[in-house]
């Protein structure tokens, strides 16, 4: 039997994020069950199941080697102090435990392709579903056509105190523009908190560049409190700028495309591929 896959979440007080995390763990269980590998998931803090409980359950079932993979788009596990500290504590609790670590999900081409799908969905929304100021009436005339070259994209990361993590989001924005969004006016980078520019600042930059439509793309795996803040900030900006069409794309979410990337990271770790 192959070593189990342990998916690590940072933790959130938001039920929505925990539910979607749980659904994704279940999806991976269904995928890897055919390969005789167990899948478990746990949070470092706040939400349940806790990482320590998931590890203890795996060890109790006879597993002393596992592949650990943080479910995060930003940062490098080798520089992620919280995750490394958490796993160090687990190895101290279970001295026979050894762990292999999967590569970050980050700028994998399939992640960029999933972002492009979410962008395309938002661009295709009918007028009644887009983010518009409250003053706009439901019976307004058919909106004026806006070309793709007049549309800008704001890729929004969670934001970190780590300059390297924030720089990684900027890097992904550039990769995304060149590989999937080159027909758009630009792809700007913004953050929800901790570091500038915020969502309003990112949208404002696009407006000053001449954009008539801005699509906000969350660089997030699952829905939750961070997505709520992104939407709230985007809607607040739209309410004050009725001349600008502001839309918001969905998160990547629990899907087969994301599962493909995680399974590959798992198989890489088993085969000893280093990064």
Automatic annotation (TrEMBL):
CDD domains: CbiX_SirB_C. Pfam families: CbiX (PF01903). Transmembrane segments: none annotated. Coiled coil: none annotated. Gene3D superfamilies: 3.40.50.1400. InterPro entries: CbiX-like, Sirohydro_Cobaltochel/CbiX. SUPFAM superfamilies: Chelatase (SSF53800). GO terms for molecular function: metal ion binding; sirohydrochlorin cobaltochelatase activity. Its EC number is 4.99.1.3. Keywords: Lyase, Metal-binding. PANTHER family: SIROHYDROCHLORIN FERROCHELATASE, CHLOROPLASTIC. This is Sirohydrochlorin cobaltochelatase. It comes from Streptosporangium saharense.
């Amino acid at each position: 039997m192959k070593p189990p896959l342990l998916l690590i979440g940072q933790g959130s007080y938001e039920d929505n994020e925990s539910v979607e995390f749980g659904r994704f763990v279940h999806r991976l269980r269904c995928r890897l069950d055919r390969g005789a590998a167990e899948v478990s998931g746990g949070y470092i803090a706040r939400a349940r199941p806790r990482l320590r409980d998931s590890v203890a359950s795996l060890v109790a079932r006879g597993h002393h080697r596992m592949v650990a993979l943080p479910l995060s788009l930003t940062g490098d596990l080798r520089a992620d102090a919280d995750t490394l500290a958490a796993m160090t504590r687990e190895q101290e609790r279970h001295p026979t435990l050894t762990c292999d670590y999967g590569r970050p999900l980050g700028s994998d081409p399939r992640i960029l392709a999933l972002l492009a799908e979410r962008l395309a969905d938002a661009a295709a929304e009918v007028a009644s579903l887009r983010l518009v100021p409250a003053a706009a009436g439901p019976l307004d005339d058919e909106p004026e056509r806006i070309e793709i070259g007049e549309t800008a994209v704001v890729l929004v990361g969670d934001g970190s105190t780590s300059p390297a993590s924030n720089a990684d989001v900027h890097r992904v924005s550039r990769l995304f523009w060149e590989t999937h969004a080159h027909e758009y006016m630009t792809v700007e980078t913004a953050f929800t908190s901790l570091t500038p520019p915020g969502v309003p600042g990112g949208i404002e930059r696009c407006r000053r560049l001449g954009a008539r439509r801005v699509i906000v793309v969350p660089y997030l795996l699952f829905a939750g409190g961070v997505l709520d803040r992104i939407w709230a900030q985007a809607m607040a900006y739209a309410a004050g700028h009725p001349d600008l069409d502001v839309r918001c794309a969905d998160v990547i979410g629990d899907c087969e495309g994301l599962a493909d990337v995680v399974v590959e990271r798992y198989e890489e770790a088993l085969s000893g591929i280093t990064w």
